[in-house]
Request: fold
Amino acid sequence: MYLYIKKYVFTTISVINLYNILFLIMVKNFFDDQDEPLRPMAASSLNNLQGKNTRKIILISIILVACVLACAYFFFNVLIFPKSYNKSRSETNKQELAEITPNVYLELDPIIVNLLPSNSKQSYLKLAIILQLNSEAETKFVKTKFPIILDGTQSFLRELREADFNGTGSTLRLKEELIKRINKIADPVVIKDVLFKEMVVN
Reply:
C-alpha cells in the first residue's frame, strides 16, 4: 500500500509540475506581448489577440482540471478503495468469460483390451479417455451413444500392437484416430478433443 501511495504522489507531483511549467510559459508569452511597444492597432486586431489569450487560459484550465480528476479517481478507486475497483474488474471479466463458449467434459468408462500379440508376447491396453464437448445438451446426446462408442473404440484398439504405442508421435496419432471415429458415431455433435486420463500398455 505504501508503495502505491508513493508512486501516486510522485506521478501527481510530476504532472502538476509539467502543467505549471506550461501555464508559466503561457503567462510569460502573454506579458511579453503586453510589453511590446505600443503601436496603433485596429479594434478588431485587439479583440482577436484578447480572444486568443482567453482561449489559451481556458484550454490550460481544462487540461489541469482533467488531470486533477484523473488523479483523484485513481487515488480513491485504486489505492483507497481497491475492493470496489477490483469488484468492478471482476464483474467485467465474468461478463467476458460468459460470452466465451464453455467447454464440457464427459468421461468414458476405462477400456481394457488385449492387443495383437507381437513375437508371441501378449500385451494389454488400459485406456481412460475424456471427451471435450461444447454444451450440456451435446453431453446428453453423446451419452445415448455410449454403447456404440465403447464398442467401436474397443474394436479399433484390439487391432493395435504394442509397437504402435512406441515413439513420440504415437499418442498424437491415436488421439486423431479416436476423434475421427467417435465423431462419426456422435454425428451431428462434434467432439472437440479426446483427452487421455490414463493409458497403460503392459
